Amino acid sequence: MCTSRYINPFTDFGFKKIFGEEANKDILIDFLNSVLPAEDQIYDLTYKSTEHLPKNDTDRKAIYDLYCENDQGEKFIVELQRAEQTHFKDRTIYYSSFPIQEQAKRGKGWDYELKAVYVISIMDFIFDETDEDFHHIVQLKNQKNKVFYDKLKFVYLELPKFRKLEKDLKTNFDKWLYLLNNITTFEQMPSVLKEHIFRKVLKLAEYTALPKADQELYDEDLKRFRDYVNTLDTREEKGRRKGREEGIEIGEKKNAIENAKNFLQMGLSIEQVAKGTGLTIAEVEELVKK
Q: What tens digit of pLDDT does each residue of 83-122 get?
């Protein structure tokens, strides 16, 4: 059962409810225009199938969260990534290959001209601890750091790095990231989000305003989301515990070796040293050799 006034945008249901409805595509357009460079602004979008099948049966298919095309025929993949993935960057590159390949035209008359492809990744995790920036726009560049190809762009948003408070919000971009990070904590509409588009988002995302069937779908999705988060937390805690245990073991081993060296200098036998330190006879013999 939902316990917050607004639905969680990091659930599948919440993300698609806010950004994936044709009737409310102005919300997605406004969001994309806030994260894309000024020269890549969007005026209209059409939603397309999110499932892309490979050319060969043996190849892996791709299923996007959202896939759109603007009035110029340019393609936009929008992905929500809830947790760190080992080869996440590789996946975004792989996804970009499908809207490129689908532009191929049969026959000899095609001159290989392509429409631009954009991959926008909204991440609820940090993938680069060494970089303070949370808004990354990536293009193909040459050895002189000049753009080699301007029709393929990747946008990565590391939301946990965005820590501005309500009083610090200045731009539309700031407000979007603040909303995504904090919407489930809102008890009422924040006064700073006074623009029409944010009021529309909050009205759309209000749990009690959803039809009963949608509330049930969201509740099921929210439970899966919480179970997923709990699984990740448990895995991380096990990792931390294992690291602490390994650290203790290493420390105890070092102490045993130092004690063994002292016992050997005192003239104790190998067997006595092994018994007194917990080291094996072979380990003590190795210390004697050294």
A: 787 788 999 999 999 999 999 887 777 888 999 999 999 9
Q: Which two tokens stand for residue 202?
A: 């909050």
Residues 6+ apart with CB under 8 A from 210: 7, 218
Intra-chain end-to-end CA distance of the chain, in Å: 65
In this structure, the answer to whether residues 86 and 156 fall within a common structural domain is yes
Q: Are residues 100 and 234 in the same domain?
A: no
Domain for residue 22, yes or no? Answer: yes
The whole-angstrom separation of Cα 80 and Cα 65 is: 7
**The domain containing residue 240 runs over which residues?**
211-290
196-236: pLDDT as tens digits? 999 999 999 999 999 999 999 999 988 888 876 676 556 55
The distance of Cα 242 from the centroid of its chain, to the nearest Å, equals: 25
Report the predicted TM-score, pTM, of the whole model to 2 decimal places: 0.76
* 21 lies in the same domain as 148: yes
Write out pLDDT tens, residues 215-226. 999 999 888 888
- If one counts the domains in the chain, the total is 2
The residue among 209, 235, 258 that closes a domain is 209
Cα 39 to Cα 33, 35, 150, distances in angstroms: 10, 12, 11
